[in-house]
Amino acid sequence: MVTFPTSNIIRERLFNWVNKMAHDREILRMIWEGQIAICFQADSEEIVGLQQPENFYLMVSRLSYLPLVTDKVKKYFSRYISHELQDGNVWFDYNGIPLKLHYPIGVLYDLLYPEEDSVPWYLTIHFSKFPEDVLVKLSTRDLLESHFMSCLKEADVLKHRGQIISSMQKKDHNQLWQGLSNDKFDQFWAINRRLMEANGDQETFKYIPVRFYADEDTFIQKLITPIKKNGQKKTVGEMMIEMSTPLKKVVEVRTQGISIHDGANLQWLSEHLSYPDNFLHLFLVYESNI
């Protein structure tokens, strides 16, 4: 039996620090080091021969993407798969739900498996029947890198009108991607800190790059300013009011596996809890869903 260390203690420390809005590099490192235990299993219909493969276990970064771990998983299971299928587009599902390859793994996990993570998350790998109607093909790392950089540019347009990312050199873009794909915190943040600086002589970004999720189908985006009309910084609670409707009231916001206090300010949250694509990925819990 394979066992995994619980992350409850780490989550509790992170929850306390985040909701005190600690200005500490250690918050960034704890977010970076957040991991999910995943148990990969084969599609029984694709197995050739009588021998069934054992499951394959990995501790995977919350901030990473499934295509960045595909090679390891594919290599393990390929000996049990016919040669005709091995060059196909690999994809994964959880309980029959195809997993979006362009979503960060932590976002997928929080969308589909919000329970305590004391047990591994069971995913099935497929070598055939790629569901083109619901998934974007990211068959190479270059395609994923292109998607990642597109998200970074979109986020910087919202924060700085695109001025920071456009002023960077190609080597800076490469360093951001290499830092993420090789799990190098210092390498990534040496460049990313420039994207997290306030807009010009202001104390905040122009807009907060944020994607809102309420179900597993899609996300919505809305222009969210970090400053209220009176010049004060906007809080999570005030954003919750903006995202509520007369029929559906937002009562909780979650990200990175934790519930966010409604008194936390959005600027701080964006600087510390954004994913490497520079977006906050926020999960909205509505009163009508409880």
UniProtKB/TrEMBL annotation:
Identification of the protein by name: Autophagy protein 5
Organism from which the protein derives: Bactrocera latifrons
All residue ranges annotated as the Autophagy protein ATG5 UblB domain in the record: 207-283
Upper taxonomic lineage: Eukaryota, Metazoa, Ecdysozoa, Arthropoda, Hexapoda
Ranges of residues in domain Autophagy protein ATG5 UblA: 31-127
Ranges for domain Autophagy protein ATG5 alpha-helical bundle region: 142-197
Function of the molecule: Involved in autophagic vesicle formation.
Highest taxon listed in the record's lineage: Eukaryota
Family statement: Belongs to the ATG5 family.
Pfam families (UniProt xref): ATG5_HBR, ATG5_UblA, ATG5_UblB
